[in-house]
């Protein structure tokens, strides 16, 4: 949102997890209808009545990474403080058991020098674990137990450092941060493409660093009923896509239009413009790939409900050639224009004779309108001549 206010990012497209205001949605869906996936990619699913909470502790590292920053920093600080206090208590007990806390003569050799209280034992514990070594306190050869504790504390300190620093690194380099610059068009469109009725969206990447092996998946989520009468509230149906580059992966250097041909195998086959306004339909789009700079797999998501699907529209071009280079105008990223499109479902279109019949009727309509305009112009011209 801050980038769009500064004018760096146009408001004609959705920037995942940045430009979408969750509290003030730009698209008003039907009252009482919840989205399965938000426009910013968040999943609108609440997990309740989880009785096996202990499963989260079996994967402590992932649990720490998933926590909020405040809780992570508190755990980060408390893990070091608790370990210092624990081993400080142990060093104090060693000194107490050996008699180092009592005033002895010059011939007395303590386990650890200059430990007179718990405070000094706590300071020595910090020096051992973080390897500061100010030199005032040091371990001697007098006590074997002290040498063993020194080794144990060093190993425990290394383990805590590895876990905590790894957790901080993973939180700062999480994959969804890269997904902030993967963008989707606000609207999806349905129009003719290569003489076929297609469902289309536009995706793009704002960064110059590429997403390697990028793939796009689409699903239709809607309520359905099986032949046995079982109601499936969120039935996820995969839809096949016509990849613009003809391979499994896409080369996401410039914005691409991802299209889905609405044929007999499509869940949108019986969908008409009228049905689009009355059905609780949601199309989920998932873009996955490997971040080139970090090698981490990232995923960006968005969804389109019925109100966000435009019938009879197509996207305008955004790429132009300028001084031997291809320039992308992101101000046109989400712009659409009207396109001649049948106002019926793909099933009805096929039953009526296919797209050839539609183009024939469209041509007749256009010729008739041209004749009417020409006739009106001739009438106006004759009136002016008579005057």
Automatic annotation (TrEMBL):
Coiled coil spans: none
Subunit structure: Homotetramer; the homotetramer binds four ATP molecules (one ATP per subunit). Forms an heterooctamer with ABCC8/SUR1; one KCNJ11 homotetramer interacts with four ABCC8/SUR1 molecules. Interacts with ABCC9/SUR2.
PANTHER family reported in the protein's UniProt record: ATP-SENSITIVE INWARD RECTIFIER POTASSIUM CHANNEL 11, INWARD RECTIFIER POTASSIUM CHANNEL
Keyword Cell division belongs to the record: no
Membrane topology: Multi-pass membrane protein
Compartmental location: Membrane
Inward rectifier potassium channel C-terminal domain span: 182-351
Stretches assigned to the Potassium channel inwardly rectifying transmembrane domain: 37-174
UniProtKB keywords: ATP-binding, Disulfide bond, Ion channel, Ion transport, Membrane, Metal-binding, Nucleotide-binding, Phosphoprotein, Potassium, Potassium transport, Transmembrane, Transmembrane helix, Transport, Voltage-gated channel
SUPFAM superfamilies (UniProt xref): E set domains, Voltage-gated potassium channels
Gene Ontology BP term (one): monoatomic ion transmembrane transport
InterPro entries on file: Ig_E-set, IRK_C, K_chnl_inward-rec_Kir, K_chnl_inward-rec_Kir6.2, K_chnl_inward-rec_Kir_cyto, Kir_TM
Organism (species): Xenoophorus captivus
Transmembrane parts of this sequence: 69-96, 146-169
Gene3D superfamilies, per database record: 1.10.287.70, G protein-activated inward rectifier potassium channel 1
Role of this protein: Inward rectifier potassium channel that forms the pore of ATP-sensitive potassium channels (KATP), regulating potassium permeability as a function of cytoplasmic ATP and ADP concentrations in many different cells. Inward rectifier potassium channels are characterized by a greater tendency to allow potassium to flow into the cell rather than out of it. Their voltage dependence is regulated by the concentration of extracellular potassium; as external potassium is raised, the voltage range of the channel opening shifts to more positive voltages.
Protein name (Swiss-Prot/TrEMBL): ATP-sensitive inward rectifier potassium channel 11
Lineage, uppermost ranks: Eukaryota, Metazoa, Chordata, Craniata, Vertebrata
Catalytic activity as recorded in UniProt: K(+)(in) = K(+)(out)
Family: Belongs to the inward rectifier-type potassium channel (TC 1.A.2.1) family. KCNJ11 subfamily.
């Amino acid at each position: 949102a801050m980038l769009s206010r500064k004018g760096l990012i146009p408001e004609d497209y959705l920037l995942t997890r940045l430009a979408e205001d969750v509290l003030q949605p730009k698209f008003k869906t039907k009252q009482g209808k919840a989205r399965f996936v938000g426009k910013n990619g968040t999943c609108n699913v609440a997990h309740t009545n989880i009785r096996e909470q202990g499963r989260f502790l079996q994967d402590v590292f992932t649990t720490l990474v998933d926590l909020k920053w405040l809780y992570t920093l508190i755990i980060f600080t408390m893990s070091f403080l608790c370990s210092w206090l624990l081993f400080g208590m142990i060093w104090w007990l060693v000194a107490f058991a050996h008699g180092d806390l009592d005033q002895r003569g010059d011939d007395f050799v303590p386990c650890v020098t200059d430990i007179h209280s718990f405070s000094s034992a706590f300071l020595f514990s910090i020096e051992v674990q973080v390897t500061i070594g100010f030199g005032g306190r040091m371990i001697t050869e007098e006590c074997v137990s002290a040498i063993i504790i020194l080794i144990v504390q060093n190993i425990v300190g290394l383990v805590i450092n590895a876990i905590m620093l790894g957790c901080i690194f993973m939180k700062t380099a999480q994959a969804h941060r890269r997904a902030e610059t993967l963008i989707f068009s606000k609207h999806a469109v349905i129009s003719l493409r290569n003489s076929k009725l297609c469902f289309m969206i536009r995706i793009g990447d704002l960064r110059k660093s590429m997403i390697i092996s990028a793939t796009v998946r689409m699903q239709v989520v809607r309520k359905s009923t099986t032949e046995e009468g079982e109601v499936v509230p969120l039935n996820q149906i995969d839809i096949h896509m016509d990849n613009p580059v003809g391979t499994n992966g896409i080369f996401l250097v410039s914005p691409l239009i991802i299209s889905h041909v609405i044929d007999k195998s499509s869940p949108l086959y019986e969908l008409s413009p009228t049905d689009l306004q009355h059905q609780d339909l949601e199309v989920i789009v998932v873009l996955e790939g490997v971040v080139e700079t970090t090698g981490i797999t990232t995923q960006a998501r968005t969804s389109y409900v019925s109100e966000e699907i435009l019938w009879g529209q197509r996207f305008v071009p955004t790429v132009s050639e300028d001084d031997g280079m291809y320039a992308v105008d992101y101000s046109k990223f989400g712009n659409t224009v009207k396109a001649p499109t049948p106002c019926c479902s793909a099933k009805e279109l096929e039953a009526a004779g296919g797209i050839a019949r539609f183009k024939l009727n469209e041509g007749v309509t256009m010729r008739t309108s041209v004749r009417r305009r020409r006739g009106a112009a001739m009438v106006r011209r004759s009136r002016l001549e008579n005057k």
